[in-house]
Amino acid sequence: IFVDLRAVEIAIRYGNQNAVDIFLRRGARLRTLTWRIAVISEPEFVLVLIRKLLDDAAILFRRKRPLEALHRFEYALEKCSELMGDKIDQENVMQASNVVKNKTEFIRLAPIQSQLREYKVQILLAMASLKRKNHELADALSFTTEGLRLAENNDSRFELYLCRAKCFFDNKNIVKAREDAEAAATIRPDNSDVKNLLSILSMPSL
Known about the structure:
Blueprint: H1 7-13, H2 17-25, H3 32-41, H4 44-62, H5 66-83, H6 103-108, H7 113-133, H8 137-150, H9 154-170, H10 174-187, H11 192-201
Helix pairs in contact: 1-2, 1-3, 4-5, 4-7, 5-7, 7-8, 7-9, 8-9, 9-10, 10-11
């Protein structure tokens, strides 16, 4: 079915985890066909590819290359959305996706949906933090709100509430900032960041 496969794609097709790891460490580039082969051959490799993007983004951010890191996060977010079926229509056909073509392929991804959801939440939080640093508060607020809609554990909810509270504070929306800071405090009442933020938000001058 597939022709002109790259080395990493052959490794995925034959389920060779060690080879996949080696090729990714050496900088193998991902393309639509790479994702297609992972979906059809072994969905667990989809998670490996997502994780690779997140690791690359983290490295780029540490090297003070935030724009390139953001591009990695955006690509990972796009793939998570496709693979989670965010654009599936009423006839169970994947729309605007070159990765998952039909309901049968989507069902194959069922075992990894929970992990995809967790990755998507991590990506949204990371992108929100980057956008906040760039003072793009509308985008940051949008990402944190979407993350809270998807978050399934208190650790993620805490980080998202705290990030959104800081975004609201930066945007001078003190009421909303206090609401989110208090929500974060209900999860981790002893957290120093939350305590400091609530202390600032309680100042009479605000």
